[in-house]
Design goal:
The chain is α/β, with parallel strands linked by helices. It is built from seven helices and nine strands, in the order βααβββαβαββααββα. The structure holds adenine. Adenine binds next to strand 5.
């Protein structure tokens, strides 16, 4: 079974997204096991502090190394072969290729930060630093749930048809998905492209390829 451990100050953040739809079913089916670990439980001072002011001055607070590193060690103790991923806006960009790479591991440990970020020395204790994109979130948690969701749906047995994961946007590097239509055939004078009603599978395939290519060129 694939395992996911989430190191966080807000374990409750994950309750709702993991309790619906595909993630819920994947957990119930025993395909993935998700566990949260409260970083604050590893704070050793009497105030259980997890943050401190930056050396050199500047705004905000940083995640302190001691409790974070202790939580990473606890995660590795439970799953010695886990792949530890720090969520940070200064990491490498998360892509579908990364998701496919991560599901080949026995499991992942997603390290979520709050405040202005992590003490740089924490980076020595993780395997990889990942960013969701070039914008700053209020913490690593929303990034971690996106990463986790992207992994879960790729795990064998999670999606109804294994084809749907393969045919996704991005499965082919840099190519976006083509447009999709369902009933009704005419919605407020907007019609389903005639080729999709033609029953000509070769023509449909070639229309879809062309649409995907045009869309990728225009949007990216
Ligand atoms: N934490 C804050 N912003 C983030 C981002 N864009 N990606 C990953 N982790 C983050």
């Amino acid at each position: 079974m694939f395992h996911a451990q989430i190191l966080t100050l807000f374990p409750e953040f994950f309750d709702s997204p993991l309790s619906c739809s595909i993630p819920k079913r994947a957990i119930a089916a025993g395909i993935v096991q998700v566990e949260t670990i409260q970083i604050r439980d590893f704070a050793t001072d009497k105030h259980h502090s997890v943050d401190d002011a930056p050396y050199g001055g500047g705004p905000g607070m940083l995640m302190k190394p001691e409790p974070v590193v202790a939580s990473i060690r606890a995660a590795r103790e439970q799953h010695p072969d886990t792949h530890v991923v720090m969520l940070t806006p200064s990491g490498s960009r998360f892509t579908q290729a990364k998701a496919l790479e991560f599901i080949e591991k026995p499991g992942v440990t997603l390290l979520c930060g709050r405040y202005e970020g992590f003490d740089e020395r924490i980076c020595n204790y993780v395997d990889e630093q990942i960013s969701l994109g070039d914008y700053v979130l209020s913490g690593g948690e929303p990034a971690a749930i996106c990463v986790l969701d992207a992994l879960i749906r790729l795990l064998p047995g999670v999606l109804g048809s294994p084809e749907s994961a393969v045919l996704d946007s991005f499965s082919e590097e840099g190519i976006l998905d083509w447009p999709h239509y369902t009933r009704p055939e005419n919605f407020e004078d907007k019609r389903v492209p005639a080729v999709l009603l033609s029953g000509n599978h070769a023509a449909i395939e070639s229309w879809r390829r062309a649409q995907a290519k045009a869309r990728s060129k225009n949007r990216r």
